[in-house]
Amino acid sequence: MVGRGFSATVRSLLGMAIGAGICYCAYRMLFARQRKKKHRDKKGASRTREKVPGRDLHGALTKPENVSASVSDLQPHHLANLLDILVTSSDSSLQEKVLITLCNSAAFSANHDIIRSLGGITIIAKSLSDSSEQIKVNALNALNNLSMNVQNQELIKDYINQTCSAISLSSLNSEVQLAGLRLIINMSVTDNYHNMVADHLPCFLYLLAEGNNIIQIYTLKVLVNLSANPTMTQTLLTAKPR
Question: Domain Armadillo repeat-containing spans what residues (predicted)?
Fold first, then answer.
């Protein structure tokens, strides 16, 4: 049974998340009005940078690790070879290196469409079932970077449940939890997949109460994203920790 102190802590933090979500909604509405006014005032000026339709993705990018200049210059056939190695090799050490390279290459938006067209998202996601924690982490990091692309999110959504399960089943404060939360943060920036994420609220509330500071911050980011969606308010308020 969840203790009163535990429940009170969760409710307090959840209230903060919902409050932050409401503030975010208000900010977004105000910013939208100011942007429209500014656009009218500057009509006829030079065209602005093209944005993602619907809502900009300001997610958490996994920073490339030790990226050499050559990583940004990988050609489609190089990426295809890496994905082929990931499919055919049973060498865990090699798989880890390939996933790190794919993660680093996915930090460059020019590679998002290429990796998707090569079937890379499905191939990378298969590594989520690997018994190696490090392989899971590297796969989640790669998917996280790829999720900065809206079209990629349409494919990555199929692995939201698996990602949340990995978060739930991993040891508390583990690298898998951190990597998984980063991906869920990105996937919950828009409200397209909120219902899928909300199915795992008991796990998030548990992490909010029991996780370390970093885990709590990442979990709060997920909850703030959900709370920015008015249809999620009742679900958030009635959810209970696992």
Answer: 74-240
pLDDT, average across residues 193-202: 97
pLDDT of residue 179: 99
Cα distances (angstroms) measured from residue 198 to each of 11, 28, 75, 225, 227: 16, 22, 38, 11, 10
Number of H helices, E strands in the chain: 13, 0
3-state SS class at 212: coil
CB 145 within 8 A of CB 109: no
Say if residues 210 and 7 touch (Cβ distance below 8 Å): no
pLDDT digits (tens, 9 = 90+) for 21-38: 555 544 454 455 556 555
Please answer whether residues 121 and 103 qualify as being in contact, where contact means their C-beta atoms are separated by less than 8 angstroms.
no
Q: Name the percent of the chain in helix, strand, coil, to the closest 5.
A: 75, 0, 25
Q: How far apart are CA 103 and CA 63, in angstroms?
A: 9
- The predicted model scores a pTM of 0.78
Superfamily grouping for domain 13-24+56-238: Leucine-rich Repeat Variant (1.25.10.10)
**Block residue for tokens 């959504």:** 157
Domain ranges of the chain: 13-24+56-238
- Residue whose C-alpha is closest to residue 216's, from 17, 1, 21, 7: 17
Residue 48 carries which DSSP code? P
